Task: inverse folding
């Protein structure tokens, strides 16, 4: 994607400016809404499919943490189910992703998406700490609930204001920063994010194994993440037939994100296996416990009275 932004221009103006600034031919046959949102000239079905699949991936990631937020609210024992290592590594990965978007001056939609990822991480970590303190306390503390509401409200306002501040204070990297610096910073943040995302699954796998249970954890969190990572990898593969340059160089440039997405997808299969295995184990234990609670019924002996 191009890193130059024209937020107030029409589709034709964007194409004209894109041609004059970047030295590219005018995008006559491109898809208007993709050109406006992503400043990318999509002229064939392979590129169009790649963008659509990429959008599906983005929405899967956007929705992935919401089921866990609800599950934590419903269950109230999130500190027993979730690993703090999983949450911290996930937050670090999203923070690295945001840093990459900021340093390389990505498009507003990408920055807003990265900020939303961080916002949902903050909500998950806040829930974890809230229920951990609440469940350890012997008496009710209304002050704790108000502090949680104020913190979540402040995080919401911050996430709404931050993208606008970044957009106003951002500097065009094409004219101000060397291309090598931008590329190095972007690749560094990409590899860091991949490492953090891969490391996030290991504490949760160990937590589930230690508990021999996945109760209190929403499977939709990992199912939507699997769908998002799978569609992201597919979006890169689908665009390969339309490339004019070296396909191996294209894959090499995206290797950091491919390793992160496909590696996490691989580890999430193990978490899915834990959900299936421990659910069956929990069901069998429940049946055995229910059978033990059923009182034994002694046979009634009817004795005939002698006349």
Result:
């Amino acid at each position: 994607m191009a890193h130059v932004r024209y937020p107030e221009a029409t589709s034709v103006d964007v194409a004209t400016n894109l041609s004059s600034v970047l030295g590219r031919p005018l995008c006559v046959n491109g898809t208007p809404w993709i050109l406006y949102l992503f400043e990318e000239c999509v002229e064939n079905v392979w590129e169009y499919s790649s963008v659509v699949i990429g959008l599906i991936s983005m929405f899967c990631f956007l929705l992935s943490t919401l089921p866990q937020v609800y599950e934590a609210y419903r269950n109230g024992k999130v500190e027993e189910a979730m690993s703090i290592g999983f949450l911290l590594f996930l937050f670090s990965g999203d923070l690295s992703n945001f840093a990459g978007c900021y340093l390389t001056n990505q498009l507003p939609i990408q920055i807003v998406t990265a900020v939303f990822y961080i916002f949902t991480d903050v909500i998950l970590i806040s829930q974890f700490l809230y229920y951990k303190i609440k469940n350890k306390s012997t008496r009710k503390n209304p002050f704790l609930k108000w502090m949680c509401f104020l913190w979540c409200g402040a995080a919401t306002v911050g996430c709404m204001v931050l993208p606008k501040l970044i957009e106003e204070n951002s500097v065009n990297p094409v004219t101000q920063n060397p291309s090598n610096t931008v590329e190095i910073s972007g690749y560094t943040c990409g590899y860091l994010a991949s490492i953090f995302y891969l490391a996030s699954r290991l504490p949760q796998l160990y937590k589930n194994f230690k508990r021999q249970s996945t109760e209190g954890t929403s499977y939709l969190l990992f199912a939507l993440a699997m769908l998002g990572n799978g569609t992201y990898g597919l979006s890169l593969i689908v665009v390969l037939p339309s490339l004019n340059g070296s396909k191996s160089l294209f894959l090499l440039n995206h290797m950091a994100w491919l390793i992160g997405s496909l590696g996490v997808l691989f580890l999430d299969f193990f978490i899915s296996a834990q959900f299936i295995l421990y659910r069956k184990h929990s069901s069998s234990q429940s049946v055995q416990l229910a059978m033990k609670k059923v009182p034994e019924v002694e046979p009634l002996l009817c004795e005939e009275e002698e006349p």
